[in-house]
Amino acid sequence: MIDPGLERWRLILGEPAAGSLGGLDGEAAGRDAALDWLYGRDEELDRRDIRRRPGGSGASQLTTVDWLDDIVRLFPKETVERLQRDAVERYEIHDIVTDPAVLERVEPNPALLRAVLRTKHLMNPEVLRLARRIVEKVVRDLVERLATEVRQSFSGARARQATRFKLARDFDARRTIRANLGHYDPEKRRLSVETPYFRARTRRNLTPWQVILLVDQSGSMLPSVIHSAVTASCLWGLPGVKTHLIAFDTEVVDLTSDVSDPVELLMKTQLGGGTDIARAVRYAAQIVEQPRRTIVAIVSDFFEGGSEAALVRGVRELVDQGSTVLGLAALDEQADPAYDRACAQRLADAGAWMGAMTPGQLAEFVAEKVGR
Fold this sequence. Notes:
- By secondary structure, this protein is of the alpha/beta class.
- It has 3 domains: 4-53 and 60-137, no CATH class; 165-200, no CATH class; 209-370, von Willebrand factor, type A domain (Rossmann fold, 3-Layer(aba) Sandwich).
- It is built from 17 helices and 10 strands.
- The strands form 3 sheets. The protein has a 6-stranded mixed sheet.
- The longest helix has 29 residues, at 125-153.
- The chain is globular and about 65 Å long.
- This is Putative VWA domain.
- InterPro entries: LolB, Uncharacterised_CoxE, VWF_A, vWFA_dom_sf.
- It comes from Actinoplanes missouriensis (strain ATCC 14538 / DSM 43046 / CBS 188.64 / JCM 3121 / NBRC 102363 / NCIMB 12654 / NRRL B-3342 / UNCC 431).
- Residues 208-364 form the VWFA domain.
């Protein structure tokens, strides 16, 4: 039996380390088998001649259902989610999201949501119904989390005038400290507050604005597609904001009618295909109502498959008429962009704001514009 302190290293290094670290039994052996079922298929092991389990006449291989049952039993939740993510994204084990027996067992998480959206075209109606459970659960969690950030962004700015309503969120720390400095005790290094001060909050002046989200639905942009749908849903119905969501590849699809239902919206996206950003920008220009009250956010990696000159020209025309153009190379929780820097620079030169944002940061940007 292996020393408990070395068990973690034995699981990390796999069977080749058994000679040095010892064997495993009980649940540790089960964890080793579950890890081997997944990571033992890595082609790198063959190239390095360290295949963990040689072929032979041993027991039958685990099925995906058996493996899922085992990892839920043997590992903590965070590890289970990581194993499931590697299964669908690294090793493309599609039956995790296309086999009804498997779908009934998996715990919804963002990695499985991405896998469902990538493979839903392979699903029959029954499987699609089960897969929708994953979409609904993860999207609901995202909406609940993001809606809080959006509400905070639009809840109103602090005014400079004092208020007699004493709410903790409106506490004016700077003025309170300044006004009570006379009560500071140097020996105890303590400030006694006799008179606290608070600031009032005022609602923003919500003059109607259009927010047009143009979302590149190529496969590499999937996390941004998901968060764009959720962001649009959270912005939908806010006072003073009229939200549009447009998905594009080489075609342009206006999904605004489904913005209030991000689950339905995501189930209608078609990932893959080419990219014609200029065409999407032309469509946006056609639905602009008041240019100086419009934000056009282009969510894309900016690898233009159409005419880059037409794209730059379209962005410049929007800017010249007074619209605010945002070029977002990522709109997700990591805001870690991968994009065509040369194209992005040309769009910046044409007057677009270029960068990457989390959904909360986009909500703050919109709120700041709307509240002016």
